[in-house]
Design brief:
five-stranded parallel beta sheet; 259 residues; UDP N-Acetylglucosamine Acyltransferase, domain 1; single chain
């Protein structure tokens, strides 16, 4: 018990720059108090004292503003920052080293008793403020859930989920897009992984321009191949000898022909 408490205090001191001392964390952090009361409530539930488990959970909710069902499974070194309005459902599972901010709901979308109705968070998951993770799916290790996101489907490990309903963003895809933007002389730094319509429009333009650049490169390769083959053939008398070697383009002449 005291080993778990020391771990909880140490992880809060590590992750919260506002924490000044272990005594301050022990006495003033409702997230820590909620976890301590939850462990007692879960012990009551495991040992068949269901009413006492729910009553202990209710007392914890009254004192901290954090509601954790006694049936929820919570790992080690979990940090509930601020915590007001956090709700953790009965079949929810929270892995080690997770961080959960205020207003988060780990809720269910099914009314079937005994079923897995609430989400499972892997190791090191960060769930942003006021986000809702609803359903019996898994949020993979080291994944991120953006603030105010509504997650209704599985999130792969290391990915980021943002928006309502949440869209999953992969690190690999963002890295490829950034490299393509830099190659074209444009830095995509500052384009956030959020729901800004302008940001999404810029991402679409970068992807589209990158695709066009690849197609143009393929066309140039084909033209060079055909040009090299044409030089090997004899030039007919009706074609000027410099027709295949002209490298200038007369825009005015072209416009006159097109009128």
């Amino acid at each position: 018990m005291f080993q778990r408490l020391r771990e909880d205090i140490a992880c809060i001191l590590e992750r919260d720059p506002a924490a000044r001392s272990a005594w301050e964390v022990l006495t003033c952090y409702p997230g820590l108090h909620a976890l301590v009361l939850h462990r007692r409530a879960r012990w009551f539930r495991v040992n068949g004292m269901h009413w006492l488990a729910r009553f202990t959970s209710h007392v914890g909710r009254f004192l901290t503003g954090i509601e954790i069902h006694p049936g929820a499974t919570i790992g080690r070194r979990v940090f509930i920052d601020h915590g007001m309005g956090v709700v953790v459902g009965e079949t929810a599972e929270i892995g080690d080293d997770c961080t959960i901010y205020q207003g988060v709901t780990l809720g269910g979308t099914s009314l079937a008793k005994g079923a897995k109705r609430h989400p499972t968070l892997g190791r090191g998951v960060i769930v942003g403020a006021n986000s809702q993770v609803l359903g019996g799916f898994t949020v993979g290790d080291d994944a991120r859930v953006g603030s105010n996101a509504v997650v209704l489907k599985e999130v792969p490990p290391g990915a980021t989920a943002v928006g309502n309903p949440a869209r999953v963003l992969h690190k690999e895809t963002d890295a490829v897009r950034e490299a393509a933007a830099a190659k074209m002389g444009f830095s995509a730094y500052g384009i956030t992984q959020g729901d800004d319509p302008m940001a999404h429009a810029m991402k679409g333009l970068i992807d589209n321009a990158s695709g066009h650049e690849h197609q143009i490169a393929l066309l140039w390769q084909a033209i060079e191949t055909l040009s090299s083959r044409s030089r090997e053939l004899p030039t007919p008398d009706c074609v000027p000898h410099d027709a295949n070697t002209t490298e200038t383009f007369d825009a005015e002449r072209f416009n006159q022909l097109m009128k």
